[in-house]
Specification:
Strand order of the largest sheet: 1-10-9-8
Structural class: alpha+beta
Family: Belongs to the bacterial solute-binding protein 5 family.
Keywords: Signal, Transport
Largest sheet: 4 strands, mixed
Subcellular location: Cell envelope
Main location: other
Number of helices: 17
Helix content: 10-25%
Organism: Streptomyces salinarius
Length: about 600
């Protein structure tokens, strides 16, 4: 989406590859030239259009959280517990995890973790101390950690107890749902090489600085500052000690990233191919040209190009849909000084949602590669988390009913745009805080680089116009959109944004357990628009503490009805075009990519 952006957890979200290598002019290329593909020692992978990698540190900070950044980082520093769908179903991937076992106490108030017999690339063992190092840094700097939501990790962990080099216990502040704790919280832990990183400067001495809050803050500052120096990634000794199947060979500020096999890797998920080249493009058209030129092994096409699928299969590729465990939406900025008061009116959000023809957008604009989203639980795959109310679409598309909602609440049309003519509260009035003369004018900052996104925004603009809502569209690269979509107060200059869209491949990819604590809980790390509903907070809390399936169903129903965001069609993560002979993996529905699993089978 990740957004990054501003804040929180795993988001979503492109290197040039082939510009002149085969005499084909590719507009929009960046990052240099790649040799024509064909080497069985390398794989050329196309990153999403208009995405430039900008982070490898295994601690996410606002503006840097994106699933692609995360995938690059995780292949070098493996998670304590890797959850993914790369085996074809979402679960614990023990081959690429540093932990081998998680044993919960009978009262669900603690867990004891067993580490595998693993080593860093410099030969030092991976120990409980490396996990404690991450724990201490995140605990002391949680408000600067993009994945932080008040009341969640690390707040839920009251103590870290080292039992020995390969065993430790985390105590919780209360009993929790085991599935949520394992898939959503423990999976965020990223053991880091304490014996190399526990210092405050390049020439500093490594010690136990992290064990005091003041020391942990200084170490954090050092690591995050080093993470901002992208041009030094490949040369900085700091980033050479890794635990994963790959290490960094090069990382260009223009977007090209080269990963090379970590020959010291001793885990279960070793690399099958020596080098991975991650290629970035400014447009899908440029990436498709690279596919035709044969300089991309694993790329993608637009959903609208499925009709010309044969033109790629004739070149020696196969085409596969990559579906995601995600929802797509535009967040409202409830604190925007111009429109925040309007967005806080449920009837207004209902009118907006009724103006979105998700069925037609999914079938026509996305060529059948998207599914409507009506609430906070992914709807592209069957699950026990989805309520009947969310499935049923509480607010079906109807411009006429949307107009009636507005006119019934004190709005009148003037020159094609609804205007509040009856301010105040109560029946027939615009609602608290909406001043007389307020025009229903919304503007969105939308992710550029996607034809589907551009077309969807145009379709929404036309539909909103029929309801009497003015809809202004501005575009920017995804990293820019995310950086400008931050939590803010009304008097904050950064609060100018009203709506934001960064979901050309899905706005939010969930962990295995699709709780919305980061997204929709008051103060949640990725609750960009400051949505707040005490009743929803209680429901979200239940999803993390109760083992009952009813908790998720009640949460699904509530947010399908209360509309914290504008729900939009959830597209496939991408329509992949993969060179024949490249296999050995399933496409992860959590939107991560896993280079170590890729293999030439022919």
């Amino acid at each position: 989406m990740s957004p990054a952006r501003t804040a929180s957890r795993r988001r979503r979200a492109l290197v040039a590859g082939a510009c002149a290598a085969v005499g084909v002019l590719l507009s929009g290329c960046t990052g240099g030239v790649s040799a024509p593909s064909g080497s069985k020692n390398e794989i050329n992978y196309a990153l999403p259009a208009n995405f430039t990698p900008n982070w490898i540190v295994p601690i996410g900070t606002p503006g840097h959280l994106n699933t692609n950044n995360s995938s690059i980082s995780q292949v070098m520093w493996e998670p304590l517990i890797a959850y993914d769908g790369s085996s074809g179903e979402i679960g614990w991937n023990k081959d690429n995890s540093l932990a081998t076992q998680a044993k919960f106490a009978a009262d669900n108030k603690s867990v004891t973790i067993t580490l595998g017999d693993r080593h860093w690339s410099d030969g030092e063992p991976v120990t409980s101390r490396d996990v404690e190092f991450w724990f201490n840094l995140v605990r002391a700097n949680k408000k600067s950690w993009a994945s932080y939501s008040p009341g969640k990790a690390p707040d839920v962990w009251t103590s870290f107890k080292t039992l020995d080099d390969r065993h430790f216990t985390l105590d919780f502040d209360r009993a929790y749902n085991r599935q949520w704790m394992l898939a959503n919280e423990l999976s965020m832990i990223r053991p880091m090489p304490q014996h190399v990183w526990d210092k405050t400067g390049d020439s500093g001495t490594v010690s136990d600085l992290d064990r005091t809050p003041a020391g942990a803050k200084k170490v954090w500052t050092y690591l995050i500052d080093a993470g901002k120096k992208i041009s030094r990634y490949a040369s900085d000794p700091l980033w050479k000690t890794v635990s994963g199947p790959y290490r960094l060979k090069s990382f260009a500020t223009s977007g090209r990233v080269e990963l090379i096999e970590n020959e010291k890797y001793d885990g279960g998920g070793a690399a099958h191919v020596k080098q991975i080249n991650l290629l970035s493009f400014t447009t899908v058209a440029a990436e498709e040209n690279a596919l035709r030129a044969g300089t991309v092994d694993y790329g993608y096409i637009r959903a609208s190009d499925l009709g010309i699928k044969k033109s790629f299969t004739d070149l020696g590729y196969h085409v596969e849909r990559w579906s995601g465990w995600a929802v797509t939406y535009m967040p409202y900025n409830f604190n925007n000084p111009e429109m925040g008061a309007v967005f806080r009116q449920l009837y207004a959000r209902q009118a907006i949602q009724m103006s979105v023809d998700q069925k037609t957008l999914s079938e026509v604009l996305y060529n059948g590669t998207a599914v409507p989203t009506h609430g906070p639980v992914p709807q592209g795959q069957p699950s026990a988390f989805l309520s009947d109310e969310q499935k049923a679409e509480p607010y079906p598309f109807s411009n006429s009913r949307a107009r009636r909602l507005l006119t019934d609440h004190g709005w009148s049309e003037r020159d094609g745009t609804m205007v509040c003519t009856s301010p105040g509260t109560g029946q027939g009035h615009c609602g608290e805080g909406v001043e007389k003369g307020t025009e229903f004018r919304m503007r969105v900052l939308s992710q550029s680089g996607s034809t589907e996104t551009d077309n969807m925004m145009s379709a929404l603009q036309s539909s909103f116009e029929k309801t009497g809502i003015d809809f202004e569209i501005k575009t920017a690269p995804v990293n820019s959109v995310l950086s400008q979509t931050g939590q803010c107060e009304e008097d904050d200059p950064a609060c100018k944004w009203q709506l934001s869209f960064f979901g050309s491949a899905g706005s939010w990819y969930f962990p295995a357990y699709p709780s919305g604590d980061a997204l929709f809980a008051s103060g949640g790390g990725s609750n960009f628009g400051n949505y707040s509903n005490p009743e929803v907070d209680e429901l979200i809390d239940r999803t993390t503490t109760s083992s009952s399936s009813d908790a998720m169903l009640a949460y699904s129903k509530a947010l399908a009805e209360d509309l914290p965001v504008i729900w939009l069609p959830e597209p496939d993560y991408q329509v992949s075009v993969i060179r024949d002979g490249l296999g050995g993996f399933a496409q992860d529905s959590l939107a991560n990519f896993h280079p170590a699993m890729w293999a030439w089978t022919e």
